[in-house]
Amino acid sequence: MENIEANLKRYRDLVVSHLKATDIILKLPVGIITIAKRIELSQLAATSQAQATENILDILDKSTEPGKWQAFSEALHSADYPYLLEILKSTPKSGKHEDYYLKLIHVFANELQKCVVPMHILPYLLSKSVISQGDVQEITTRQLNVGPQLAFLLLLDLLPRRQRPEIWYRHFLEGLLEQGHEDLVQEIDPDYFSTQNLGPITEGKVKQGYTSSGASWAVCHSDREEMECVMEDIVEPEHDSMGDQGAPSPSNPESCDMMYQPEETYDQESSPIVSSSSSLTSSKRQASYCEPCDSFTQMKVVHSRDFRIAKDGSGEIDTTNKMDNQIKFDITSTNKLDMQSEKKMVYTPNVSVEHNSDESEDENFMTSDYDDEEGEEPPKEKITRQDPLLQLRNYQIELAKIAVGGENTIICAPTGSGKTWVALHIIKKHLEAKRPREKRTVAFMAKTNPLIKQQYRRCTKYLPQYRTSLVTGDTEESTHLDAFLPVSDILCFTPQILVNNLESKSVKSLSEFTLLIVDECHHTKKEDAYNKLMRKYLMDLERKNIKNLPQVVGLTASVGAGKSSTVDEAVNYILGIMANMDVYKLSTVQKYREELEKHVSVPKEVVIPMVTGVNGESQGMIEDIMMKIEEELQDPCLFEPALNLLLSDKPSDYKAQNYMQWVRTLEKTTSTVVTDPNTARHILACARYLVILSAALEMNSLLTVQDVMTFFSTSLKPISQHQEKQTEEEKKLFQLLKGLLQDLNRCHRNNAHNPNLVKMRDTLEEMLLAEIKERKSPRALVFVKTRATCLALARFMGKEMAKKGIKVHYLTGKSAKEGDDGMTEAEQTDALNKFEQGHYLVLVSTSVGSEGIDIPDCNIVLSYDYAGNEITKIQMTGRGRQKNSTKIALASETVIKQETVSAYRAAMMYKAIDKLKLMNEHENCGKIREIQREQLIKQEIREKNAQKKESMKKEGDFTLQCIKCSVPVVSNDYIKCVKNSHHVVTDKKFFDKIEEKSHPKPKKIEGIEVKKMIFCKNCGQEWGIYFEYCTVELPIIQIRSFKVISSDDGEVVTPKKWKDVPFQIPNCEFSEVLTLHQE
């Protein structure tokens, strides 16, 4: 770190001019900058960032804290200052000094101020890390308060702070090009286009290649072994549906089906690759895609109003067409296209040339710009750089009609029909219709972070004229949604964020929004976050205490039928969902059903019965151990009436769901009624092993004995790490399972294969290889029930299919609790991206893949002994969206029956929707209002009960004991509730009772870093996590790991959530907790 200290003296002025003090104040340790000093510096930074930075550097110079320069380096890295880090750690690279680029921009400041609207260029600069999210907020606020010209001066001040001069300069010019300011770029840097050299290549080695015409292309090999062809321009070929009949009507743009109408179709395989002509220098984007194969030759790119491709390959320009900003091209093809049988094709495309800065979206030449977007093939609309125009198909216009008219509605249409594009069209119409001085704000909600981030990308890409903000739960901003309302036209977030903000009064009411888009709205029931929002909506509507409630538009592929057994019952179920959303009209396709069927692929469904009695020997071994453990429960439960009664009511089927529920009840009852710590610990250990064994039984019927052994090893590993803390009874149980592992190992040698696995592997291999042989790019999605089965099956399939060159991966949900084996959001995104790009041809998934996370188009969907309800069936089947897709169910007799019931309910749901459309509208409205009145009465009762429950919470004292070993942990005096959710322990003695381990998947929650997990030192029970706030580590405990003991009467409760603790726990701020921690 000596370099940093020496270089800081040399470049101090540069650091002071570039570094914003507010970016690092909270990132430096308390040992360097105390809490009091942080407050003082923050106040100073409000008036002078430079002076505050000077003071921070002075504090660093004088500090005697060891590792201070390392801490400063980490703070700069965390605050995204790579250029300052490079300067301070080593000598900067030679080249043009930064003053050159800055002065060059300032020379043209007047012209830039007049033409450039800062808020339009911010998203691109943010995506390239030229500016930070904080910079964006600062510039946006400046523009709203004093106008774009003064805001642009602030942008000029912030531009050079974070990246090396040549990097921020290049990205700034690219941002200008993104906004269509080619003339300005040409004026600022006349050499820019000639020296651009087909765009920058910053990673890997470059090798030159040539098309048949001699035009050069570059292939960049990155660390991920992906090839990237960087070209000046690209036109992407259309999907197979480009051959559909029905040319768009120029007189009615909204009726446009597609802007591409060939007289005869050709398949995607034979469509030519687009190559860039070296003479074109007016490009606005770069594209990355795979190296061209021999079956393709060249395509000349021509910018014109209309272009026709004749039999002889010559192009004729039609200047009478008034449509602008279109890219036309001329095909000169050999190889795959038979020159003797070429047909005349009329091509009038409207191709997006908008640069997509999101690195996770692959711009492969074989896919359209829409391929990553819910797998839905969009209408071929006109999309220009400055004003992307969404033009819908006729059936999509029909779906949007009620919403565009301003009424609440649920848009119910099949997966792949383009509901997202309908939603974007509705948002656009809604914002366009605002009156002078009226503020309209749209809330776009989706259930998960990956999905809402994708919706955000769509909004920014296809509605760039509006200000769109993304708020996710892993940032602190999620608790301050009100800060985004004045500066946003569209806000994208998960519904729980809005629930939290309404409860905290950060958002006063739903009337802050004018339109709510509710994705996957069939979840609007029971205690789902969507339903909590809509209850608030209905209560405000009923009480008439809130004016101007927002319009509500729901999106779903299947509204569901619940547990209905008749069409009339299904009608009532759907009316219930409509009532919850205050919807009186469903939006479905009626008039243009034939057109809808053309564009939505319906997979062929095949059912393959599973072989029964598989792995019978290993099944018997596992069941024998389960019976022995149940015998272990007899004595400790004998004198506890509640437990004795529970044992007599034990389910006989170890694999049934109700057996697992019985074990959970045993755990809860034990924690409540058993007072002897050793007895309770023994029973809970038995219950824990029964859960593991029951899960192993299910795996045993689906996978190999080796997979079951691996599952046991993984499950027992945490227990084995705490063997020295085990009681004699626990050691006996552990030895039972250890002996079972040895028996299974012997069994494994005799039963290496599961015939059901072999059948599935062979079926998938045969279908995939047949597709590959035809030079197609197949994808297969395999659904299973549990996470453990998913991981094991992916391992097996990956090993088996690697012999055929087929790569397999898994996709599961996020961690349900600390320390489990769920995927992080980044891991999910990486798996999906590689599946889309063809790196993985098979993705084994839990139900998370059927809904919530976007899955690219695939042509094979296989469910392995897994059947959900009618909604799950429709969602899973809808994953196979390519034409001639296949849905295979490899299932046991029980699951086949469930599939039959789900199919029956799905058909019943469609009949119910049709019946609803034919029913008397006035009668439907009456039923919906009656349901709403009943719901409001129930909600009032819930609120009164909640208030009563809260008022009944005792003011007395209590103690927490470990749920496993009953060791006393902490009293209520040392438990503080922060932000109404985080329960922090401030007792110094607490740290003597815990062991800590690194978190397997560090993450951020509301801006708080989670790095470690904490466990009971006595028995190894997981207690909670450490989180880092202002560089101070504080322990947060999870109440499900403890028993709550009343100090007054000794009453014991075992709540799963903190809100169910029957005692009052004071709220406080983090600053108070930090003060207590330092005392």
UniProtKB/TrEMBL annotation:
Family matches, as InterPro entries: CARD_dom, DEAD/DEAH_box_helicase_dom, DEATH-like_dom_sf, Helicase_ATP-bd, Helicase_C-like, P-loop_NTPase, RIG-I-like_C, RLR_C_sf
Protein name: RNA helicase
Domain of life the protein comes from: Eukaryota
Transmembrane parts of this sequence: none
Keyword Glycoprotein (UniProt): no
Domain Helicase ATP-binding intervals: 400-577
GO biological process, one term: defense response to virus
Acidic residues bias (residue ranges): 359-376
Region (Disordered): 238-258, 352-383
Reactions the enzyme catalyzes: ATP + H2O = ADP + phosphate + H(+)
Any Pfam family the entry gives: RIG-I_C
Enzyme Commission designation: 3.6.4.13
Main localization of the protein described in the UniProt heading: cytoplasm
Family: Belongs to the helicase family. RLR subfamily.
Location in or out of the cell: Cytoplasm
Keywords: Antiviral defense, ATP-binding, Cytoplasm, Helicase, Hydrolase, Immunity, Innate immunity, Isopeptide bond, Metal-binding, Nucleotide-binding, Phosphoprotein, Repeat, RNA-binding, Ubl conjugation, Zinc
GO cellular component terms attached to this protein's record: cytoplasm
Residue ranges constituting the Helicase C-terminal domain according to the UniProt record: 764-924
MF GO annotations: ATP binding; hydrolase activity; metal ion binding; RNA binding; RNA helicase activity
Domain RLR CTR: 948-1075
Alphabetized SUPFAM superfamilies for the sequence: P-loop containing nucleoside triphosphate hydrolases
